[in-house]
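Now for our target.
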Amino acid sequence: MQNSNSTDNEDLRIFQIIDANLDRAREGLRVIEDWARFGLGKEEFVEKIKNFRQILGKNHLEVYKKSRNYIEDKCKGLTHQEQINRKTPEQIISSNAGRVQEALRVIEEFSRLHNKELSKIASEIRYEIYTLEIDLLSLSKRKNSEEILNVNDLYVITDQKKNLLTIIEDILIAGVRIIQHRFKTGTDKDHLQEAIHIKNLCKRYNSLFIINDRVDIALASNADGIHLGQDDLDLKSARKLLGYSKIIGISANNKNDISNALKDGCDYIGIGPIFETATKKDKKPLGIEKIKTLTKDLHIPWFAIGGVTTNNISYLKNSGFKKVALVSQLMNSEDPKGDAIMILKELSHENQGKWRGKKN
């Protein structure tokens, strides 16, 4: 440190500024660290943030601490309305990441003449925090999606209908919390516009919105994830494009496909067809016993799909199947809301009550 014995007024004011911002930076880092530890359970991020705190602590020199009361801080205790408005972990992460970045920028500027090493450290950590914030927010979003997948047992896949948005809102009102949008004909422009409308509906009801097959539409509509078949883009390539904030589901009907999906890091699996279905006429039904064998050691969410209707939900439940995906039963229903409520009751009264949302 240069001029560390200097006690002129200007130096003391600068030291006081550095001291205050070292405290701010370390406090903000602790908030972020605790969310990474307790909220996300990500050890690698905890270690990284803890290391930042230790480095700053090591460089929090005694001369800075002694200047702490040189000038009375007449602005102590001032707050801002936005502090009260932080209601989600994501808002807390963003605000504290911003606090750390701002404090480090102040340290970087004011320590440049007196402590070049600290100025360099502050600059390096500040740039790391930009990436760290994005990573933590992505992991938080992913965690929310995983929780919805885990506690909800009904997965609804759309079909092309003139009144599709009305049907979707009806089943969201009923308590459905996972929607996969599937489209086969029409223009990409129309598909994107429709996807954006559905995404907005799903957001209103705290529901997952998943796009079938099309990574580009998923990205453009800010979908929560994508579902891929065996003939679609491979999972690893999709993950590179989507990042880690999105969930990726895989269709599988044999042991090898399931094994590959798990190895590549899929978030859930759709397994079927369990029964004969008009949407997969070329696929031979797997049947109850075959699917039981395929899923006996499966520890991620999986949904039985293919020919699932209100007539066989109870049979599936009694056979030990907890989660199902369906298309025609709700897309072609004269009362999609009523049918959705009935299916949810068959599957899980508890989950239906827990995740039922309401309009903002």
